[in-house]
Design a protein that fits this description.
With 329 residues, the protein is of the alpha+beta class. Helix content is 27%, strand content 28%. Helix 1 (2-11) packs across helix 4 (65-75) and helix 6 (154-168) crosses helix 9. The longest helix has 15 residues, at 154-168. The chain starts with a helix and ends in a 6-residue tail after the last strand.
């Protein structure tokens, strides 16, 4: 009922009387009043005027299952997203996706949280997302069939899609290989992506794409102050998280059918800030070494030329790449 009442209020130009709502939904006016109060507790500004009814005022930055569903329908994205799950607080949206049941092959699930208490980045690093100043969501894709090697480039694909969304919003953004989102003006990190595959034999049974973007954060802990940034800090503008979420889903829906032709790698190269840079490679085993990132191979791995002119293939799973100025990119 909450979804239906919210839809009525959003579609109404003026006031919607409690009597009209109760008659339209076949519920009591007391039930309508209770739901209105519940929506107010979630942050909606709802004006109530005797003998006139209820009216939404303002456009607060609210994430909720109902809000997501309404925007998906308005944008026509309910044809792309088959299932939705939203939580006020969770350990991580990737974990929500991992535990999801009932999703069929070739369906896409969306998992969103207002706060994550155990968000993770690549290589198990903590991701600061225990607040409502960012957008934290995951997509769960269950391919009908597909070899793991086919989806190995998905981290780059997701990074490209997210960077294009931020650029469309007016935040000049590039990708640090493989998928860190970097504000070009400051060189600081706007967001990151964690992709996970659940594999049986050599087939991918589930593909999880987790995305975290700092949206309205105005300050960061001291240890992150020179490394992290937000859309607000870079642009001075306030964007509603639901707006960014819809833009991201629209971009994925547009690009995903062409994932398998890998022509998008050319666009990734154009947006990759790592290429052409002197970088430091930190292997999981062995000593660090420096070189110049010169290109990507057909699998999306980084090609690095060392001081002796020898080319190496650097894989994201067992190395880290850092800028030589000490700022992790």
């Amino acid at each position: 009922m909450k979804l239906k009442i919210l839809q009525i209020l959003k579609n109404k130009q003026g006031y919607a009387s409690g009597e009209q709502i109760s008659r339209q939904l076949g519920v009591t006016r007391a039930a309508v009043w209770k739901t209105i109060n519940s929506l107010r507790e979630e942050g909606y500004s709802i004006e109530a005027v005797p003998n006139r009814g209820y009216r939404l005022t303002g456009k607060p930055d609210i994430l909720s299952g109902e809000e997501i569903q309404i925007h998906l329908q308005q944008a026509g994205l309910d044809r792309f997203v088959d299932t939705i799950a939203f939580k006020r607080k969770t350990d991580s949206t990737n974990q929500m996706a991992r535990l999801a049941k009932g999703q069929q092959p070739n369906q896409i699930g969306l998992f969103v949280a207002e706060q994550q208490t155990a968000g993770r980045g690549r290589r198990g690093r903590d991701w600061q997302s225990n607040h409502n100043e960012g957008l934290w969501f995951s997509l769960l894709i269950r391919p009908e069939q597909g070899l793991a090697a086919h989806f190995s480039r998905m981290p780059l694909f997701a990074g490209l899609c997210a960077a294009e969304v931020l650029n469309d919003l007016g935040v000049n953004t590039g990708v640090k290989w493989p998928n860190d989102l970097i504000a070009i003006a400051s060189g600081r990190k706007l967001g990151g992506i964690l992709t996970e595959m659940i594999i049986e034999d050599t087939d991918v049974r589930s593909l999880i794409i987790g995305i975290g973007i700092n949206v309205t954060t105005k300050s960061f802990p001291e240890n992150l102050r020179n490394l992290a940034t937000s859309i607000f800090l870079e642009s001075g503008r306030h964007f509603a998280r639901i707006e960014i979420l819809m833009a991201a889903l629209h971009r994925f829906a547009k690009r995903f059918p062409t994932y398998g032709d890998f022509h998008w790698l050319a666009d990734y190269r154009s947006n990759c800030l790592t290429l052409g840079r002197e970088i430091k490679v930190l292997p999981a085993f062995g000593s660090p070494w420096t070189g110049r990132a010169i290109d990507l191979d057909d699998d999306g791995e980084l090609l690095v030329e060392d001081a002796n002119g020898v080319r190496h293939v650097v894989r994201s799973g067992d190395v880290s790449v850092r800028g030589l100025l000490g700022c992790e990119m």
